Amino acid sequence: MKVLTRHLAIRVERALGTSRVVNIVGPRQAGKTTLVKELILTSRYVSLDDDRMRAALAADPYGQLELLCEEAQGSRRPIVLDEVQRLPEITLALKRIVDADRRPGQFILTGSSDIFTTGNAYDSLAGRVMTLTLRPLSAPEIAKQGPCRLLDIVFEYPKDCLGALPKALSFTRAQARDLIVRGGFPEIRKLGDQDRTHRYISYLDSIIERDVAPIAEVRKPDILRRLIDQLAARTAEELSVAALCKALQARKETVDSYIDILCRLGVIHRLGAWTSSGAKREIKASKLHFLDTGCATALRGEDSSSFGLGADPVAFGHVLESFVFAELEKSLPHLGKRWRLYHWRQDAREVDIVAEAPGRLLALFEMKASGKVGADDFRHINWFMSEGPGKSYKGIGFVVYLGSDLLSFGAGRIALPLSMLWSFPL
């Protein structure tokens, strides 16, 4: 079976040329093992899921790593330590090894959480490690296209980028629904509706059982499991910890702690609030996004048929918004400039996603779960940029919709087909 190209493979190869240790972090089953086994040339693959290997490294980390380095010396290719979050104490031995030999590309670490941010890590390897995040498959990877360069084009053409965008690939609403509800986990997305739902539930159970312990102690796993269900039902909504505490009959400290764990494991993302004052950002309520809409819809008991004719448009609108956010977030490592993502709301006015780049440049995104767009759909974007907090900024406003045509509603106001996210060539 042909392995799908992962866009992050190029970033990993580049990082191996500049950093002694490359740390690949991402949720379980996102494809980290396949990436380092099939797409990156390595000298040795060691899984810390192997009880004997983990015990040997725990007993003598420096000696075992030194032995692995001696065995790999002839190839000059990196050694892979997979599932390294299971032994965060290994970091001090890694530092000794890479400080004795300062050449780049010695180790690739993979894990469902970043071992260098855990309390059990003995050293951060500051200046020696490059950390990269591998998400589940993006829409461009599934479509065998290049990374989404939409924000790069906005940066190059900040007044009106319509003429610089590629032709949007054709798609149907049914295809869009199917893409969204299948999600991006390579082994799960190809399953039928019922099997996929069961696998996602099993997947989350395995996270609670295996991936949470290295990060923090969870005394009430039943609350964590019910919290995940609650968050799936609230994707693309502003986060109300008080409402979650009431629904779960749990303390605020417990819910806050568990939300932080799920963020660190790549299950959810807390999207900060944008303000025109950088010093005040993310103080207001965050918006919560499930990072894989296939997982979210499975937990909600939804499939493609759930969003057909007569379905609740608000429910699909929220799932669509989380899907677009996740796709933009996956595109960030491949862009030429550093963009940051936020949301914004003031009373009844709201912009779903605010992307900001250096130079006071914004790209604003609103979602519409419909095949038609009108001028009124830009009213919040227009107010934001002309009278609101973005009036001293330059930028472009997009309404992402389920139609097929790239449409202009004035300079810097573009109706964007959803398929534009996967229409950039390799």
Strands, helices and their partners?
Layout: H1 8-16, E1 21-25, H2 32-39, E2 44-47, H3 51-59, H4 61-72, E3 79-82, H5 91-100, E4 107-111, E5 129-133, H6 139-142, H7 150-156, H8 173-182, H9 193-211, H10 221-233, E6 237-238, H11 241-248, H12 252-264, E7 268-271, E8 287-290, H13 293-299, H14 313-331, E9 340-346, E10 349-357, E11 361-367, H15 379-386, E12 394-401, E13 407-408, E14 413-417
Parallel strand pairs: 1-4, 1-5, 2-3, 3-4, 11-12, 12-14
Antiparallel strand pairs: 6-8, 7-8, 9-10, 10-11, 13-14
Helix pairs in contact: 3-4, 4-5, 8-13, 9-13, 10-12, 10-13
- Structural class based on helices, strands and sheet pairing: alpha/beta
Strand arrangement, major sheet:
9-10-11-12-14-13
Mean pLDDT: 92
Calculate Rg over CA atoms: 22 Å
The biggest sheet amounts to: 6 strands, mixed
Oligomer: single chain
The outline comes out as: globular
Count of spatially separate domains? 2
